[in-house]
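tl;dr need the bound structure. longer version: we got a ligand (adenosine monophosphate) that a collaborator sent over and nobodys looked at where it sits. i said id run it. heres the input, straight from their email, havent touched it
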Amino acid sequence: MSVLIVGTTALDSIKTPKAENPRLLGGSASHAAVAASFFSPVQLVGIVGDDFPKRYVELYKKHGICLEGLQQVQGQTFHWAGEYEVNMNKRRTLNTVLGVIENFTPKLPDAYAKTPYVLLANISPGLQHHVLDQMKKPKFVIADTMDLWLNIALPEVLKLLKRVDAIVMNDSEASQLTQTDNIVAAIPKIHKMGPKYVIVKKGEHGAILSGPSGMFVAPAFPLHKVVDPTGAGDSFVGGMIGYLATSKGSIETNLRRAIIHGSVVASFCCEGFGLKKTTTVTKKQIADRVKQLEKLVKF
Ligand code: AMP
């Protein structure tokens, strides 16, 4: 089954202690869409400006991503610039230019409204609501968010939590949302805000899923070298929903394996700048890493 993904389609300028890469293909929706495309057909909802390179459009196409919902208009593409410290867990935003995303109120193509799986990737909660309003009885909706929206649009985030099946956020955002340092204690508080499934990402330490059948602690794939972790969270949730959409049986049954597949795609994302590594990975490499991860946690 297909997955609809809305989020940022961006140009990212990324600086690490070792290298600097300007204007890479990035954005929450780009990372998530490429990740999901390994498993399921993807429909992308986003907006880019007239500065968006054609080769990036070709890259989406190479992954079979449906671009009927990708608008190209006059103006600047959303641009994010960030810098990592030697400890790659620490990054700071150097600059954000909203550009054409500022006035983005997408009207979904008719064919998109009945898509069963929906990923509201990181973008303003107002836009996440706007897209969800146009969906007709989706089977599964998951939303991602970030600290910025908890700071400047909390009421809209809280409203969104009541409308989605699952929320994914990182540990610091879960603490911020619940005013609770301990993640295990924060999770039931997030359930009370609405979502049946809560997924808390802990970067290189994996993720915790909580749902009706309890908790699942998923490892991250251990890497010798991280080149650029930008988009790892988006790849994680994209890979996860892509895998879910292709799996038979209930969400509850498939969610654990879906999370493992998300972790594996995220690990590839970290091994190259922007989408450079993810876009060269094969399905076989993903399957092999899933097997390795299974061995690593079996006891
Ligand atoms: P992650 O590393 O998973 O947090 O995601 C990084 C991606 O988020 C980059 O590709 C950015 O283009 C995108 N991004 C940065 N700031 C924002 C924002 N305010 N809203 C949505 N996406 C953003």
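gonna send this back to them w/ a short note. The radius of gyration is 18 Å.
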